[in-house]
């Protein structure tokens, strides 16, 4: 009798596991997510850069992460890259530098190449000592591409990459760099600089395309003039409108570049998310989104908790869900969740020419 019960239980267990596996594979909307970008989506690459000061692998970062430990994410919990992967039915793409020396590492669910402090231009990271600029992130992707072609064969790898999502969140550090550098301002007018940003990004996208990327998600730059680090410089604590003006100009240039690229490169599709508009909506109508603190950081010290960054000696707010900003630069998990919910299922003109759900289903 016991043997029959044991056999029945084993069969039941096997059916449950098969059913769970089937549900998981059905929920998986793309084979992989490859993430390129800056600290908004870095999941720990900078932990592996020996001299970088752009790190978040210490308290109070990660306070609300499932492990309740700092992971290198510039956030109290999950960041936009984690939340996007969740929506797509995938685990978070692991940091490339945590895998690159492991011969048995799997890249098949995706990889994150993103690096805190990174920009579209190679020199942008010099303020932070060390980051991985976009050109080097693309180089790292080419190494992953080579490995997967060897593992899967060229036709299977080509299909894998063409169905995968390439998420790109970058550009704000380039603007911070421009406004913080008299040398850069002497070389280019703001308009020339934002045009150069879009054009340089275009060159890197063509490299990704050449090595199999076909489905792209782009986040426009948010209202960087309204972050605590900018407000604290203003006696009235209002947004820096010059920063915001040129952010909008860059985003317009990015959208125009993407439209041109679609007609230039066969078979690409993309979704552009207007981070700026959603961020301004949140700041202007915070209670609608469940926030009551739009100016101050949750973690830091001094006015608006923005005079000193989020360090182990810093104070942090008790309710992270009512703060738009985690530290002087970055959003809380609650804010990132609003962004990801919108980019995934939002409509025009915030998501153009389609949202991410439509992009991955196409």
**Can you give the mean pLDDT?**
93
Sheet having the most strands: 6 strands, mixed
Any low-confidence stretches, pLDDT <50, length ≥5? 15-26
Strand order, sheet with most strands: 2-1-3-4-5-10
SS strand fraction: 5-15%
What overall form do the CA principal axes indicate? Answer: globular
How many β-strands, per DSSP?
Answer: 10
Distance between the termini: 53 Å
Order of helices and strands: HEHHEHHEHHHEHHEHEEEEHEH
- Classify the helix fraction into a percent range: 40-55%
Keywords: Hydrolase, Lipid degradation, Lipid metabolism, Signal
Organism: Hibiscus sabdariffa
Family: Belongs to the 'GDSL' lipolytic enzyme family.
Pfam families: Lipase_GDSL
Provide key terms for this protein.
alpha/beta, 6-stranded mixed beta sheet, two-stranded parallel sheet, 362 residues, 10% strand
What does this structure look like?
This protein is of the alpha/beta class and 362 residues long. It has 13 helices and 10 strands. Helices cover 44% and strands 10% of the residues. The termini are far apart.
Please write out the topology.
Layout: H1 2-27, E1 33-37, H2 80-87, H3 96-99, E2 110-112, H4 134-152, H5 154-163, E3 165-169, H6 172-179, H7 182-187, H8 190-210, E4 215-219, H9 228-231, H10 241-264, E5 269-273, H11 275-284, E6 293-297, E7 299-300, E8 315-316, E9 323-325, H12 333-345, E10 351-352, H13 356-361
Helix pairs in contact: 2-12, 4-5, 4-8, 8-10
Produce a short descriptive summary.
Pfam families: Lipase_GDSL (PF00657). This protein has 362 residues and is of the alpha/beta class.
């Amino acid at each position: 009798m016991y043997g029959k019960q044991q056999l029945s239980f084993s069969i039941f267990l096997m059916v449950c596991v098969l059913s769970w596996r089937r549900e998981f594979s059905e929920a998986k909307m793309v084979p992989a997510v490859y993430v390129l970008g800056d600290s908004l989506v870095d999941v720990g690459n900078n932990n592996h850069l020996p001299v970088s000061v752009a790190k978040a692998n210490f308290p109070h970062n990660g306070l609300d992460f499932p492990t309740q430990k700092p992971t290198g994410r510039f956030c109290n919990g999950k960041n936009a890259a984690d939340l996007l992967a969740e929506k797509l039915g995938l685990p978070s793409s692991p940091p490339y530098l945590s895998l690159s020396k492991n011969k048995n590492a799997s890249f098949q669910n995706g990889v994150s190449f993103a690096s805190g402090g990174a920009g579209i231009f190679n020199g942008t990271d010099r303020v932070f000592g060390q980051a991985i600029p976009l050109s080097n992130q693309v180089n790292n992707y080419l190494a992953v591409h080579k490995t997967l072609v060897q593992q899967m064969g060229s036709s299977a790898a080509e299909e894998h990459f063409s169905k995968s999502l390439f998420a790109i969140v970058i550009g704000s550090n380039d603007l911070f760099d421009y406004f913080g550098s008299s040398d850069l301002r002497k070389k280019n007018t703001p308009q020339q600089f934002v045009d150069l940003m879009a054009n340089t990004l275009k060159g890197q996208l063509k490299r990704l395309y050449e090595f199999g990327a076909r489905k792209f998600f782009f986040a426009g730059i948010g209202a960087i003039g309204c972050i605590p680090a900018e407000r604290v410089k203003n006696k009235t604590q209002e947004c820096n409108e010059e920063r915001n003006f040129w952010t909008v100009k860059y985003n317009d240039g990015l959208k125009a570049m993407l439209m041109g690229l679609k007609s230039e490169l066969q078979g690409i599709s993309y979704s552009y998310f207007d981070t700026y508009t959603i961020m301004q909506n949140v700041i202007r109508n915070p209670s609608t989104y469940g926030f009551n603190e739009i100016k101050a950081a949750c973690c830091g010290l001094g006015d608006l908790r923005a005079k000193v960054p989020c360090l182990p000696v810093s104070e942090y707010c008790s309710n992270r869900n009512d703060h738009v900003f985690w530290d002087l630069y970055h959003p809380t998990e609650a804010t990132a969740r609003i962004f990801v919910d919108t980019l995934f299922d939002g409509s025009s003109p915030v998501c153009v020419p389609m949202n991410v759900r439509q992009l991955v289903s196409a």
